[in-house]
Amino acid sequence: MKYADMHCDTVTRLYRKHKDLLQNDCHIDISKMQQGQCLLQNFAVFTKIDVQDSSFTRGAIDYYYDQLEKNKNTIRPVFRYEDILENERNGCISAVLTLEDGSVIDNDLENLNRYYDLGVRMIGLTWNFPNGIGYPNMDGRTPSLYTTDNERGLTPFGIEYVKRMEELGIVVDVSHLSDKGFYDVLEHTSKPFVASHSNARSICGVARNLSDEMIRKLSERGGVMGLNYCSSFIEDHNEKMTMIKDMVRHIRHIVEVGGIDCIGLGSDFDGIDNDLEMKDASGMQLLHEALKEHYSEEEREKIFHRNVLRVYKEVWK
User: Fold this and answer.
1) DSSP helix/strand/coil, 97
2) Handedness of CA 166, 170, 175, 177 (dihedral sign)
3) CATH at 167
4) pLDDT tens digit string along 71-88?
């Protein structure tokens, strides 16, 4: 079954190490995506703002398009929903450009327009550092996996930022954002938003995951959360191996709390430093096989791609 993945760090890793998308030793390359039956892959440009700035972001975006051009017979960029359908008809994987840490607009909303023109269609508002947009749960300066921030959310500029994202047709991504920030996004937006790579906090208590109330609110808005394959977000105190049965446990809980329409996939491939039972993108069908015991084909399609594509169709201009 074809899958849509809302988050990976592959482009950032390729850019840093000068590797190629066609073939590499990362979780994702062309061959692995084809083996895993990839329909659509979001490629995040992650900018670590304590040591990098927007010049890194722009360089990585140039590298992204260079890699797509070199492999245009198998993977092509997406700028609107219809591009996904056209790419599938042509037998090509769809690539979506996203940003992780939206502060790279340098506190200028005009730069948000420019990133949209460059093809950015989803933005993670923060990473693990406060920025001009808002605050994370896990502050990288004083890291704690289990501490949530219920007091600091979006800044006044951050509120204007998410409103402008909606006007442009860029999906708001609340993964890494503080709990207060999540509810600020809920208050100041009207369209579906996503948590591109977050799991269920009631199963694994880390602050990067969503509480049951947050899952319900996200679902009520029509949003989707993408299952993160990192072991630290799958099982408390597990840093060794991500097992498929534990991934299924999160999916089942999220469906129980928020319904079948609010769960998708957000691997965090190439941002994960632990081993995985599925190994890499080539093993995606192992998860699909494990879900057959619990869900119908229609439900599995929603989990694997339909829910994510529905949000894109509704939000993108």
Assistant:
1) strand
2) negative
3) 3.20.20.140
4) 999 999 999 999 999 999
For 259, phi and psi rounded to 5 degrees? Answer: 95, 165
What percent of the chain is predicted at pLDDT more than 70?
98
178-200 pLDDT, tens digit each: 999 999 999 999 999 999 999 99
Task: Give me the helix-helix angle, 212-221 and 179-188, nearest 10°.
Answer: 20
CA 28 to chain centre: 15
Render 250-312 in DSSP notation, one character per residue: HHHHHHHHH-GGGEEE---BTS--SEETT-SGGGHHHHHHHHTTTS-HHHHHIIIIIHHHHHH
Neighbours of 27 (CB within 10 A): 25
The DSSP output letter for 177 is B
What's the domain range around 229?
Answer: 3-315
Round to whole Å and give the CA distance between 158 and 93.
33
Number of domains the chain contains: 1
What distance in Å separates the CA atoms of residue 144 and residue 125, rounded to the nearest whole number?
Answer: 19
Contact yes or no for 104/53 (Cβ under 8 A): yes
Alpha helices in 108-259 (DSSP H): 109-117, 156-168, 179-188, 212-221, 244-258
